[in-house]
Amino acid sequence: MIRTKGEAGTGNVVEAVRHVRSVMGDIRALRNMDDDEVFSYAKRIAAPYDLVMQTKQLGRLPVVQFAAGGVATPADAALMMQLGCDGVFANEIR
User: Where does the record place the PdxS/SNZ N-terminal domain (predicted)?
Assistant: First the structure.
């Protein structure tokens, strides 16, 4: 499980959105890399090559990605799902 995080308790979803967009942008870039570039990228981020290659092939993380922190309304939760999260964690929905 991967948790993307915004500012907890603020009700401000902006940081969570930035984080999810960053993760998804890196995955899009990964999809355009050839195998040698994937190997170099995996080495640069200190991640197992097989896991990075699987992410490239799937076009998404091969684990559940949750959003948390700053997600305060049903609209925030829907936005996070639309951006590619598999789930949303919220202590309180306003």
Answer: 1-68
